[in-house]
Amino acid sequence: MRFRRIPDETIRRLPVYFRALLFFAEQGSRYISSSSLAELVGLNSWQIRKDFSYFGGFGTRGVGYEIAELLKQIRKILKIRTGQKIALVGVGNLGSAMLAYPGFQIYGFEIVAAFDNNPKKIGKKVKNVKVEDVAKLGSLKRRRIRLAIIAVPCEAAQNVADKLVNAGVRGILNFSPCYITVPSTVKVITIDIAMDLARLPYYVPGSVFAEW
Amino acid sequence: MRFRRIPDETIRRLPVYFRALLFFAEQGSRYISSSSLAELVGLNSWQIRKDFSYFGGFGTRGVGYEIAELLKQIRKILKIRTGQKIALVGVGNLGSAMLAYPGFQIYGFEIVAAFDNNPKKIGKKVKNVKVEDVAKLGSLKRRRIRLAIIAVPCEAAQNVADKLVNAGVRGILNFSPCYITVPSTVKVITIDIAMDLARLPYYVPGSVFAEW
DNA sequence: CTATGTGAATTTATTCACAGCA
DNA sequence: TGCTGTGAATAAATTCACATAG
User: Fold this and answer.
1) CA–C1' distance A46–C8 (Å)?
2) CATH number of B84-196
3) Does A92 touch chain B (CB under 8 A)?
4) Confidence band for B208, pLDDT divided at 50, 70 and 90
5) CB pairs under 8 A between A and B
6) Is B84 on the interface with A (CB under 8 A)?
7) How far from A143 is each of A85, A96, A116, A183, B25, CA to CA, in Å?
8) Residues engaging strand C (CB under 7 angstroms)
9) Closest approach of chain B CAs to the CA of A94, in angstroms?
10) Phi and psi dihedrals of A56, rounded to 5?
11) Dihedral class, residue B188 (left if φ above 0, else alpha if ψ from -120 to 50, else beta)
């Protein structure tokens, strides 16, 4: 294996591999071939081998890759580790769904604080997390929580983002379908669910939405 | 303008442009320059001009692009139109959040049917949509609903997917963090919220999660 | 004989630089 | 002069084909 920069597209696929490998590990498998992994995640085997070759060379020819080793490497590259604390702002339907979302745990994330501006919600416990007043967002700095999920209505999103940045948050997962601006030192990932959906009709032949 | 296939990456950016253009249109602007659009969506102006050049050539030099015309073209390419019916399966927190999600409307999608297996929920109305028994998924064919959102727990996802396929659904937006398999004639987009989050530590210098 | 690993070829996408039009 | 539009240059990612190890 020669050193080379890992392409961005490979980085994008690593979480996919990671999840699939955990799945295989749970089944009790010890080794996995590039082709069986390919089948599960819907890619070609050579793509997967190429991806792994950027940081690996730890497969065994004629056998496959050791799952535990792959998981270890991906964890190292993506800096996945347990106990990565996240704050949630907005405990509405979407926020509650986030608190219940089982997917975060896989990558070591844990929502340890929740905030809302609704007095009826403040003080209540949702999924073992006590809902705090959104006015207390400043406490995140002291509590060393540097990642946050915004799940508030559009109008409130920018204001919340500003407060988060002031509180030392460095990464934001934004679920509101609107633009927020932050200093360039803070990384924002905006997830607009509808945007992925919007691409669907283009790709489905004859259109999913034909009138029949 | 010469004819050329529109690159996939351009297609991926079109919904982003679309949303931003609607935003500018609401502000009452009539023209937009590639650079102001670029600033809002966080891309370079030449990228945007290049993207538009694949299907356009309708900008005015020295002035910019006519917003209405751009919107029209993007609508045509992505096949965006109003009244695109969607069914929702699973009216838990995530499902309820989907029903309330304002982003779908932008692209002309509308959730017109909701299903759950919880007798307590069946018959109730959530956001003007009556919750039906999941056993009645078969009715989608008759009702000409060909797109569905799966927002059920992992264990139930595959079963629901099978039923949807049987009911003639052609596109599925899957929110459960697990693999579902469908015939190749059906397009599935799986959104694993945690997967985007998982890439964040890699990109943030020094790591978002440093111990201080 | 199976499945990895990787240079080389190919395809695809981004960036540049500037011509051309209002 | 300002901003579009686009070939050409560059960069990046995918695909191939096959040598190589177990």
Assistant:
1) 15
2) 3.40.50.720
3) yes
4) very low
5) 191
6) yes
7) 10, 22, 18, 22, 42
8) A 1-2, 33-35, 45-46, 49-50, 52-53, 56-65; B 7-10, 44, 46-47, 49-50, 60-63
9) 5
10) -125, -125
11) beta
C-alpha to C-alpha distances, A3 to A60, A68, A96, B194, nearest whole angstrom: 19, 22, 44, 29
Q: Amino acid identity, residue A170?
A: R
Cβ–Cβ under 8 Å, residues A48 and A34:
yes
**Using one digit for the tens of pLDDT, what is the confidence trace for B142-176?**
999 999 999 999 999 999 999 999 999 998 999 98
Q: Is the pLDDT of residue B212 over 60?
A: no
Can you point out the beta strands (E) in chain A? 31-32, 59-60, 64-66, 84-89, 109-116, 125-126, 129-133, 147-150, 171-174, 187-190
- Please provide residue B95's backbone torsions phi and psi, each rounded to the nearest 5 degrees: -60, -45
| Contact in structure between A79 and B201 (CB atoms under 8 Å) | yes
Picking from A153, A148, A102, the residue whose alpha carbon sits closest to that of residue A127 is A102
CATH code assigned to B8-77 = 1.10.10.10
Structure tokens at B86: 């969607």
pLDDT given for residue A181 in this prediction: 87
Contact A194 B103 (CB under 8 A): yes
> Distance between CA atoms of B149 and B130, rounded to whole angstroms?
16
- Sorted by where each begins, the domain ranges of chain B are 8-77, 84-196
SS3 A57: coil
Tokens (6 digits) for B13: 């950016």
d(CA A55, CA A67): 15
